[in-house]
Structure formats: structure tokens, C-alpha cells
TrEMBL record:
The lineage of its organism: Eukaryota, Fungi, Fungi incertae sedis, Zoopagomycota, Kickxellomycotina. This is 1,3-beta-glucanosyltransferase. Residues 476-491, 505-519 have a biased composition (Low complexity). Its EC number is 2.4.1.-. SUPFAM superfamilies: (Trans)glycosidases. GO terms for cellular component: plasma membrane; side of membrane. It comes from Smittium simulii. It is found in: Cell envelope; Cell membrane; Membrane. It is an enzyme of class 2 (transferase). GO terms for molecular function: 1,3-beta-glucanosyltransferase activity. Residues 472-520 are annotated as: Disordered. InterPro entries: GH (IPR017853), Glucanosyltransferase (IPR004886), X8 (IPR012946).
């Protein structure tokens, strides 16, 4: 036997032939090879019980659990799992392979507990964007990644609607980053279906002239179908389906599975994959696989244990999925005439000017800004108490200094030129503005608990030049925000105006249109047929020919 043949056999034994690439055309998912419509028969997957590192959860870095769970998830009839939290620094090869070997795709939330847009104090800042890029880099090499979710239930009531602007900016920048790197993964959003903001949310994430800022798919976390007596109409699923019937991008139930009655009959899945909803919805994710403190699981298992107990609902869900067979269309026969939504206008319930978005973060702009300051936090000073730093920043900006360059007002669509900088950089800007307001008195650059430096001749003489620095995608900046303070501050802030939390202290709730773009995001209405999966398929065929 030739050495090349031996090597090829070894390669086949250790490498998985890629799953077919799933693409979007209009409001539907399709298998790029067969052309068949693809319905997500999904399951939320986030094993937590007994996790030795609960602050850095990553179920896709636990090969024992993945190899244990993947065959069982396949047994259920599930073809896609949604994973909420992962750590980009870990090795995911074995877990991703385990799911691929069982024909299972991955839908990944980009955010994590320590790296997310905070709904109560939102910001899309340099460190957060870096974390999102790291997540994309970690998973873009895998063929069975079906897409990314940029935010989960971030704006969940009228008060938190300003956060939607920052999630949409994140979608834009992640899509631009993917496009620059010639990667074709869709990026979407998952909402909590709050009735008071349901309509503006679904409109906002699918409106505007900039295609890169619009979501590629939209999810609704829906728990209104409760118990065996509920129906398509009594649950309100009929009204939700009607709202989305003309939506121009795919719609999913990004979570479902009300636990008001146990065991759950999962009758909503029959409608989801049947004639009630399959013409509008592309499937969904039942919540969830493992039994945790919230009691939604269908199996009981402890982290890394080889022993797993199927609960009563495992077989019920399996039975329901085995009996559904949604009728789809062929990609070549499908053309959508659905249009994008009209953008919502600012109101008491919607505190966002839809035509303006936060700028793409720019590390170079922030570094330049700091180099222009006569008073700043010392370079070697580390903020060990973010709450104290945030309180100091708030005090300066609410009492003496107009902090427009590091603030925003989503209802007016105004975003300061440096509002995307991190907490240390923004606090340095505020300290310098206060220092200048007080006549550059050296004592005004001294703050208890914070090490500061005075510079008589800053290396950057004109702070306005900093705003033009290229952004963190490597593109020319279109930053037109305010770069300087215009004196003392005597006015109060509105609810939608904030200095925002801007460093890794954002340990929040969520896992979350201006100008032409030189690198257009992928057009999912014209899917590329030659994909990663075809390349992998070709390699597998060549390998087989080599053997035989």
C-alpha cells in the first residue's frame, strides 16, 4: 500500500466530512447542495450543573459531555443546537466534531456572561467588539456552524430599548468583519417577545438602507403555549405568525417550551412544523436539553459525568419530532417578494432614532484621544474597582463637565466620537475636561484612589484628528460625533442618554445605518453555492478515490 494511501485513510479516520452549508434566500433557510428548504429542529444546549468554571461556561470545550450527548440529541430528531455561552480561548475541535458526526449544526450566541451588551447601561465598545471578533475567529472554521446570534433578549421592556441601537451596531460590525474575511455566516437577534415593544423590535432589526446593519434572521423566545389544552389560537401563536407572514428574513422560535404543565406535551412543535406555521417560520429551539435550576431539562446529568438519566419529556419530545415533516420549497423554485420593514420612530415606548447607529469602535481613535490629554489616568494604572470609576465618571459628567464626546442619546441619534472607548479612556477624557475647566490647576488632576499624570505638551495637539482614525475592522472611519466639551454642564440627562459602562465589568443579562460600506456584507438572498461544505465534500471524494 502506498504511503499516500495510508495517510489518506488515517486522515479520513480522524476528519469528518463536512455537513452541507445552510444558506439563506429570502425568508427561508436552504441546504446549499440539495436545494431543499431547511427547517431547524432545534434544542437549547447549555449544560451547567457541576460546571467547575461557572463564570466561564463553555459546553463545547467538554469532549466527554459532547460525545455523550450528541448521539442522544440525534436520537431526538434534532438537527441543530443553540449554545448560549462559549469561551473563544478554548479548543472546540472534539466537541464540534462530535456534533458534526451526528449531523447536528450549531447556532452560537456571540455574547457571554462577562462579554455582552448590558441592557440597563448599553455600550458597543472596543473591548467588547474585540471579544466578539475572537468568538467569530474561534468558530468560523467549522462547517456545521449555521449562524451567530448577536444578542438575546437585550431590550426587554420600554426602558431598555436604547440597548437595541448597540445590538444593531454589533450586528453591522460583525457582518462587516465577516465580509472582510470572506466568511459567509448569517448574524441574527433573539427577542423576548415583550408585547409593548414587539412591533418596533421586529421592525427595527429588519429596516434601513444599510443591509449590513439589518439582521439576517430574527428569533422570538416564545412561551405562551402552555399545557395540553392550549391551541394555536388560544396561545396567541396565530397572531405572532400573522405578524411575521410578510417578513423578508427567516423567523425562528429561538426558544419555546412553557413549563406551566408537566410533563410538557410540546404541542406547539406540531404547529411550528405543520401547516399552521411552516410557511412563515423556519423552525425553532426547544428549551432545553439538560435539567438545571430552572427545571426545563429533558435529561438529568452532572458536568463531565458519563451517566445520564433521560427524563419523562425526552421520549415525549422525541415522539413529537418523529411525527412532524414540514413541507418546504426548492431553492431554485423560490423567489420572495417580501420587503424590509419601515423603521420605527422615537416614542415613549421606543427610545431610539432608527436612522442613526453608534459608530464602529476604534482602538486607534481611543489611544489617540488619550495622547491628546493634559491630564489622564496613568498608563500603568489598572481600574480594580469599576463601580467606583463609573461613579466618578458619572459625578463629573452630571455636575461640572459636558461630556458629549463620551456620551450618547439614542432617542436623538447622537453618539459622541469617543463613546465607544473603554472605561479608563473615558474617565481620562472626563478628568482632563474637568482639569481644563478649572484653569489647568494641577490639583484638579488629583483624585483619591486614582493615579493620574500631567502632560504639559501632549503628543497629539488636535483631538479632532483622532475621530478620523480607522476603525477596528480596518476601515476608514465615518465618525462624525462630537470630539470636545463645550464648557460646564447645567442640564440633566434624559433616560436614553448615558456615559455607559464600558469595560469588562459588563456582566449583564444579554447574551447582544449610516454611510456606504466599502466591504459589503454577504447577500443572503443570493446564496453562494460553492461553500466550505462543498470544499470539504470534494476533499472527501478525492480521498475515497485515492483509497480505491
Amino acid at each position: 500500500m502506498k504511503l499516500s494511501t495510508v495517510f489518506t485513510i488515517y486522515s479520513l479516520a480522524t476528519t469528518t466530512c463536512a455537513l452541507d452549508k445552510i444558506v439563506i434566500k429570502g425568508s427561508k433557510f436552504f441546504n446549499s447542495i440539495s436545494g431543499d428548504q431547511f427547517f431547524i429542529k432545534g434544542l437549547a444546549y447549555q449544560p451547567e450543573k457541576g460546571d467547575p468554571t461557572p463564570a466561564k461556561q463553555d459546553p463545547l470545550a467538554n469532549p466527554l459531555a459532547c460525545e455523550r450527548d450528541a448521539p442522544l440529541i440525534k436520537e431526538l430528531g434534532v438537527n441543530t443546537i443553540r449554545v448560549y455561552q462559549t469561551d473563544s480561548s478554548n479548543d472546540h475541535d472534539d466537541c464540534v466534531k462530535a456534533f458534526a458526526d451526528n449531523g447536528i449544526y450549531l447556532m452560537l450566541d456571540i455574547a457571554s456572561a462577562s462579554m455582552a451588551i448590558d441592557r440597563d447601561d448599553p455600550s458597543w465598545y472596543v473591548d467588547l467588539f474585540a471579544g466578539y471578533r475572537n468568538k467569530i475567529d474561534a468558530f468560523a472554521k467549522y462547517d456545521n456552524v449555521i449562524g451567530f446570534i448577536a444578542g438575546n433578549e437585550v431590550a426587554n421592556n420600554e426602558k431598555t430599548t436604547p440597548s437595541a441601537a448597540f445590538v444593531k451596531a454589533a450586528i453591522r460590525d460583525v457582518k462587516e468583519y465577516l465580509a472582510k474575511n470572506k466568511l459567509d455566516f448569517p448574524v441574527g437577534y433573539a427577542s423576548n417577545d415583550e408585547p409593548t415593544i414587539r412591533d418596533p423590535l421586529m421592525d427595527y432589526f429588519n429596516c434601513g438602507d444599510d443591509a449590513s446593519a439589518r439582521a439576517d434572521f430574527y428569533g422570538a423566545n416564545l412561551y405562551s403555549w402552555c399545557g395540553s389544552k392550549a391551541t394555536f389560537s388560544s396561545s396567541g401563536y396565530d397572531k405572532i405568525t400573522e405578524k411575521f407572514k410578510d417578513y423578508s428574513i427567516p423567523v425562528l422560535l429561538s426558544e419555546y417550551g412553557c413549563i406551566a404543565e408537566r410533563p410538557r406535551p410540546f404541542n406547539e412543535a406540531k404547529s411550528l412544523y405543520g401547516s399552521d406555521m411552516s410557511a412563515t417560520f423556519s423552525g425553532g429551539f426547544m428549551y432545553m436539553f439538560t435539567e438545571e435550576e430552572n427545571n426545563y431539562g429533558i435529561v438529568d446529568v452532572t458536568y463531565s459525568s458519563s451517566e445520564l438519566k433521560k427524563l419523562e419529556e425526552f421520549d415525549i419530545f422525541k415522539n413529537v419530532l418523529s411525527k412532524v415533516s414540514p413541507t418546504g420549497v426548492k431553492m431554485k423554485d423560490y423567489n420572495s417578494s417580501n420587503k424590509i420593514q419601515s423603521c420605527p420612530s422615537p416614542s415613549e415606548a421606543w427610545k431610539v432614532k432608527s436612522t442613526e447607529l453608534p459608530q464602529t469602535p476604534s482602538t486607534k481613535a481611543c489611544e489617540c484621544m488619550v495622547e491628546s490629554l493634559g491630564c489622564a489616568l496613568s498608563k500603568d494604572f489598572t481600574i480594580e474597582n469599576p463601580k467606583a470609576a463609573q461613579a466618578l465618571l458619572k459625578d463629573i459628567c452630571s455636575s461640572s463637565v459636558k461630556c458629549d464626546p463620551i456620551e450618547y442619546d439614542t432617542s436623538k441619534g447622537t453618539y459622541g466620537a469617543f463613546q465607544f472607548c473603554n472605561l479608563k479612556e473615558k474617565l481620562s477624557w472626563a478628568l482632563n475636561a474637568q482639569y481644563e475647566l478649572k484653569g489647568k490647576n494641577a490639583d484638579s488632576c488629583t483624585v483619591d484612589g486614582f493615579n493620574t499624570d500631567l502632560k504639559k505638551s501632549p503628543s497629539v495637539s488636535d483631538i479632532s484628528t483622532c475621530a478620523t482614525k480607522e476603525n477596528d475592522i480596518g476601515m476608514k472611519s465615518s465618525n462624525t460625533g462630537s470630539t470636545s466639551s463645550s464648557g460646564s454642564k447645567n442640564t440633566s440627562k434624559s433616560d436614553s442618554k448615558n456615559t455607559s459602562k464600558s469595560d469588562s465589568e459588563n456582566t449583564s443579562n444579554s447574551s447582544s445605518d449610516s454611510g456606504s460600506k466599502s466591504n459589503a456584507a454577504p447577500n443572503y438572498n443570493s446564496p453562494s453555492i460553492f461553500s466550505h461544505s462543498m470544499a470539504g465534500f470534494a476533499i472527501c471524494i478525492v480521498a475515497l478515490v485515492t483509497i480505491y
